[in-house]
Amino acid sequence: MSLIDTTPSTPGKFKSEKCTPYSAHPFYRNLRFQSSLLKLTVWSSSFLGLILLFFLISSPPSSHHHGRRSTEIDVGTKWETKVRTSAETRARADGGKPLRVLVTGAAGFVGTHVALALKLRGDGVVGLDSFNHYYDPELKIARQKFLANAGVCVIEGDINDEKLLKRLFDVVHFTHVVHLAAQAGVRYAMENPGSYVKSNVAGFVNLLEVCKSADPQPAIVWASSSSVYGTNTKVPFSEKDRTDHPASLYAATKKAGEAIAHTYNHIYGLSITGLRFFTVYGPWGRPDMAYFFFTKDILKGKEITIYETSRGESVARDFTYIDDVVKGCLAALDTANKSTGSGGKKRGPAQLRIFNLGNTKPVPVSRLVSILEEHLKVNARKKVLPLPSNGDVEFTHANISLAQTELGYRPTIDLETGMKQFVWWYLNYYDRSRKN
Ligand SMILES: O=C(O)[C@H]1O[C@H](OP(=O)(O)OP(=O)(O)OC[C@H]2O[C@@H](n3ccc(=O)[nH]c3=O)[C@H](O)[C@@H]2O)[C@H](O)[C@@H](O)[C@H]1O
Question: Is 315 in contact with 354 (CB distance < 8 Å)?
Fold first, then answer.
C-alpha cells in the first residue's frame, strides 16, 4: 500500500494467443466444446471444494471486530511487523519512560526532525504521511529513507483514512500522537482552499475521532500556527491575545483546529497541546518557504521579491530554528498528562494547552536575504514590492514566557547560525541529488 510496498497495483497486459486454422472448423469446435464442458465441471467442483475447505480452516469464529480485521489475524504480516518494529522502545538515556508515538506528517519538515529526535532518545515511533505533491515528493521520499536508516518506518497514508488509522491503533497502543500532517503555506490557500479544509479541518477531526475511541486514549500534541494572531498589532504575541481575525484561510483552518481541539478535550477527555510554530526553518526544510526558494533563486541568478509594508519597511518574521522547535515538541510530549477518557467517554477533566514556539527576535526579510547572500557568497538580484493582499501578515513576534515556564523552552539559535546550517545542508543535498 505504500512506497515501501513494491508490488504493482495494476495487472500487467497480456497478449491473446492466435487460433490455429483447424480449430476454427465446426466439427472440431463441437468436439472440443463437449470435452471442455466435462473438464470444466470436474475442475470447478474440485475448485469450489478447495475454497470451502480454505474458509473452514482459516476463519476463526470471532475474528471480526466492528467490520475490521482483528489484530490476531494480521500478526506476522509484513506491514504489521514493520509497524511493530518501528514502535519498539529502548531504555531512555535521560531515564524517562519511553513513549510510543504516532507522528503524522512524518515525511514533512518538522515531522522528520521530531520523529528522529524521539527515536534517538529511545521512544518507539511510527510515522504516517500522505506524500502529496504540494511540493517535491522526492524530498519527502528522501526524508523517509533518512528516517528508515534510523529505524523509523513512515507509512504512506492519509489522516482522512479512518480504517488505516484504526488499524495502526490496533497494532500499536500509542501513548502519544504528534500531529504535524497539515496543508501548510499561507499564500497557497488562495490557489487551493479545499486542500486546507481537507487536511487541517476534516483530517484533524478524523484523527481525533480515532484517538477518542482508542483504548488507551493517547495524549496529543499538534501543530497550530503563529498565523492565528492574524492582523494583531500588539507585540509580542501572547497566548492570551485575541485570535479571531485571521488574515488567510490557512490561519482560519489552524484557528478552527484550536476550537476543534477544545471540543474533543471537553467532551471526550483527550489531553491536547497545541503549539503555535513561528516560521520554522532549517535543514530538510520546505521548498515553498521564502528562505528555501530564495536560496534556490539566488544561486540561479533569478530575481527575488522582498515584500514591504505600507510604511516602507521590510516585512519581518520571528524565524525559529528547527532544533529549538523540536526541543519544544519533546518537552510538550514529556509534560503532557494522560487523556482521561476511555471507550469514547470522558472520565474526568483533561489537560488542554496552547504554547507559542517562537524565537522572540523578529528579523526583517531584507536581513534574511543579506544572511543568505553571505553564506552563499552570491549577491541576490532583488526587487522590492508592496506586500500584496495574499494572506501574509506584516510581522510576527512571539512571547514565549508561557512555554519557558511550563516546558522549559529556551530557543538558542539565531538566524545567522541557523541559516548557515540550512545552506550547508542545501548545498550538500542538491549536489548529491545532482550527482545521483
Ligand atoms: O509561522 C507560521 O505559522 C507560518 O510560517 C510560515 O509562513 P510564513 O511566515 O509566511 O513563511 P514564508 O512563506 O517563508 O514567508 C516568510 C516571509 O517572507 C515574505 N516573502 C515571501 C515570499 C516572497 O516572495 N517574498 C517575501 O518577502 C513573506 O511575506 C513573509 O514575511 C509557513 O510557511 C506557514 O506554513 C506557517 O507555518
Answer: no
The whole-angstrom separation of Cα 212 and Cα 155 is: 22
Burial label for 418, CB within 10 Å (0-12, 13-18, 19+), is buried
Angle, nearest 10°, between helix axes 204-213 and 249-268?
Answer: 10
- By most ligand atoms within 8 Å of CB, the mutation choice from 243, 279, 281, 365 for ligand 1 is 279
Collapsed DSSP state (helix, strand, coil) of residue 384: strand
pLDDT in tens, 70-93: 343 344 589 999 999 999 999 998
Could you give the angle at the alpha carbon of 331 between the alpha carbons of 325 and 337, nearest 5°?
A: 135
Ramachandran angles phi, psi of 153, nearest 5° = -95, 130
- Coil, helix or strand at residue 427: helix
CA distance 359 to 415: 9
Closest CA to 407 of 312, 278, 275: 275
d(CA 351, CA 335): 10
Q: CA neighbours within 13 Å on the CB side: how many for 377?
A: 2
Cell numbers found for residue 188: 497557497
Say if ligand 1 is within 6 A of residue 279 CB.
Answer: yes
Q: Determine the Cα–Cα distance for residues 267 and 238; give it in Å rounded to an integer.
A: 27
Neighbours of 304 (CB within 10 A): 18
Q: Are 309 and 387 in contact (CB under 8 A)?
A: yes
pLDDT in tens, 134-143: 999 999 999 9
Q: Which three cell numbers stand for residue 73?
A: 489475524
Mutate to test the pocket of ligand 1, among 135, 392, 393, 396 (most ligand atoms within 8 A of CB): 392
C-alpha span between 360 and 320 (Å, rounded): 9
Catalytic-residue membership of 250: yes
ipTM over 0.95: yes
Q: Checking DSSP bridges between strand 303-308 and strand 381-386, what pairing results, if any?
A: parallel
Write out pLDDT tens, residues 20-68: 332 333 333 333 334 444 444 445 444 444 443 333 333 333 333 333 3
**Cell (9 digits) for 58:** 482459516
* Identity of residue 129: D
Residue 113: how many other CB atoms lie within 10 Å = 24
Domains and CATH numbers, the chain: 182-278+321-358+395-412 (3.40.50.720)
d(CA 172, CA 197): 28
